[in-house]
Amino acid sequence: MLMKELRLVRLAAYLTCSLMPWLACAATAPAEQDSQTRSESNDADTSGSTRLPQINVRGWWVSPYLVPDSSSATLTETPLVDIPRSIHVIPESVLRDQNAQSLADAIRNAPSISVNMGEGMRDEFLIRGVKTKSDFYANGLRDDTEYMRDLYNIAHVDVLLGPAALVFGRGGAGGVVNLVTKLPEPRHIGEASLEAGSWQHWRGTADIGDQVGESGAFRVLAMGEDSGGFRDHYFLHRYAVNPEFGYQFSANTHLDLGISYLSDRRIVDRGITSQNGRPVDVPRDTFFGAPDQNMSDGDVGAITANLSHDFDTNLKLVSSFRASDADRDYLNTYAGGAVDGNGEFKMKGYAHSHHRRSYINRTDLIADIDSGQVKQTLVFGSEYSSQRDHDYQTLPSEGSKNLPGRFPIANPEIAPIAFPYLDRDNHVVGKEFALYAQDQLSWGDRWKAVIGARWDRFTVDADYRNPEVTPDHTYNADNTWSPRAGLIFKPIENDSIYASVTKTYTPQGANIALSRKSPDGANLDPESAINFEIGNKLELMNGQLLITAALFHLELDDVVAEAADGSGELVNTGAQRNRGFSVSADGALNDQWSIFANFTHLTAKITEATEEADSGARVGLVPRNQFSIWTRFAVSPHWGLAAGVHGESEKYTSYSNNVTLPQYVVGDLMAWYQTDKFRVQANLNNVSDKHYFPTASSDYEIMPGEPRNLMVTLGFNY
After folding, report:
1. pTM score, two decimals?
2. Which domains does the chain have, with CATH numbers?
3. Which of 197, 322, 494, 590 sits CB 3.0–4.6 Å from 141 for a disulfide?
């Protein structure tokens, strides 16, 4: 019996190491498929008289390319193959291999997403053709402060495509991005990295943790960066720290507490302008504006808590809380018009400060019911949130962002200017209360379903302290229902064919109250969206590879967008229809070869003419075709190579369809060498030195892509 079990252990270890050859483990070690240091011991027989020796395995810097389960879409830990909607989980291993420097770098690994420049100081995307700067979440709780997020403490990035109001509340018409952070674990953690690269790029990270007593654990994650950039005058100074503590009160009750702080100071760079419907022909490092004045300085802090209690094996309570405080000062000048026949253009500017304090709590009661014929997982939940904002802005001239005169394209840099005129001084309180219910059902061996609904009451109380505005106070309230339903048929165990319909509402009150200097339009009807989707999810390679294909049709009404001239004013672009298909492949092709790839074909059009937009106009920054392929090959347990290519077809900068960004394809390379104590990685990006334009903020704010550049990272495990 003993010899038989020893042979089984050795066989399991051999298979594990052959499937994950990058782990520095012996052929006899029963290593687990994760990125942590493990210690295992097994009894050789039922009497416990013989014990196998303890074996330690190191493999901290590599984890699989496929995360098979997620709670982001259903509030319960569910296999991706059993979720009747498009969800894409981007693991830390992919972000590390690509040396992703921002959330924008990370999300190109998911289909149907394109990047808005976000005025050079915030994360902003178009998800299935729907623009968003607020559909961001941290561990399932709203994090819609406008800032550039860092990836130093991220375990994986979950991207949900299509309306997601049942789980996340208001917004999310195109989808949401949920950042799942690293938590304390009852084991020793000791990792650090140093990074150097082109344009004086310097960055360091640390991740340390351990068990505290028999029931506690802590973890501290930190980051610091001092970098330049390929654009003239660019700099970035930021640092962050995130201590976490976990405590197991009993076998049934666990608490996680965390504090995070991020400081970010950078030059505000809003790119170059256009000429004759294309990006103006200037060197890609050319800066437009006042380099000694264009600055963004922001601080974001948050306190989080998550308490879970199992009443028994079938009933669980989870309560999550997040409080955040964000301050941002933002001063900039930028191109506000196209270059004319005289080689001159208009320039705009403003000074802006924003303070937001947010509180949110979500409580879920989760019950598992098995009647024999039907199995159910029921979720009953409530959510309450409160946001207080102070939004203050001044202009260079009374009532206008325009700077006097015109400026030559030959010298687009200017001296600092004054901003003496008040544009807005808004004080806003937004509150949301929601109740929701969801049922995940399965019956027989072939059928599963998800049904549910959410009721939201969202209120905005806004005080406009601007004497030119009458009235100077507005109150807005919206009550909305957001239903969802999805059906899955599984012809075989590893294949799911699904159909779903979801609906969501986005109240206009908060967005307009925060973005306009007057309450005009604050009581517009909520933006509504309904999404129809069919798809297929197929697991291959013994569950190591997931192929996902989806066909979707999204209808939106009462759409509000920012004006095409970059002024920041909100305009109504009527109704919108976005439809297309996407396909992705995530995971391992064999024991050495991993892949993360996607392709999307998407048409997003305005379907009802308004004063601002024509019917039939294409939505800005949405290419018809886009793709990303990243693949890694482990030559041996110690070294390997990776390569990627990503690109887009041509797209317009805005709904005006006046300025076109050309199509592009960009390639990247990576190589690594590692032992059980350190890893060195080199990333060569934009190998062909392609001159391209990946994103914009308006018709006159276009960002060139990075030239060829090299990044080298040295990682330590201690």
Report:
1. 0.88
2. 2-57 (no CATH), 69-180 (2.170.130.10), 181-717 (2.40.170.20)
3. 322
